[in-house]
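Q: Predict the bound structure with FE2/S2 (inorganic) cluster.
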Amino acid sequence: MRTDDPKAAASRRPSPEGSKETRGGPSFLSEAMEKRFAREVAKYPPEQKQSAVMACLAIVQQEQGFVSAESERMVADYLGMPVIAVHEVTTFYNMYNQQPLGRFKFNVCTNLPCQLRDGQQALEHLCSRLGVEEGGTTADGLFTVQKSECLGACADAPVMLVNDREMCSFMGNQRLDELLDVLASQAKE
Ligand code: FES
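A: Predicted complex:
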């Protein structure tokens, strides 16, 4: 979903990757997760069940907040593929978290078109407001700030993605501040 209104984006409550209770939880294949895996695998011919690897990793992340090495092994076992092949998928796509992150993950585009319209400044403003380095997470576990490659919305630069789902456009300092304020107050509810 894409928006150029940070308040509207926040009002749609970008969902955290995993609840507090499950974030970073044990990497075993629960009954619920197995059911979800099976639904994904059923979309492909039996000999091509490995095609479900991205979906299975997304399910792991939704359930546990990130994809651990143990979870990669679990997915590899389930799909009958080498662990390294699963790890290659996890590390190729930046929507997969390889460690626990904040409840709200910001991916700020710093590719050239966004750079030409203050993408780097947007990244630095967020880091400064939150008191973190790029890639860091706030002490309260609420926000993680990362830079990202082109998000495919160059005309709306500078842009950022919230929790891998919500595209926010024209993110100057004021709009960034508005978004931070709304998300912080949501987190208190
Ligand atoms: S360069 Fe930022 S969205 Fe394309």
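A: Residues 109, 111, 113-114, 150-154, 157, 159 surround FE2/S2 (inorganic) cluster (CB under 6 Å).
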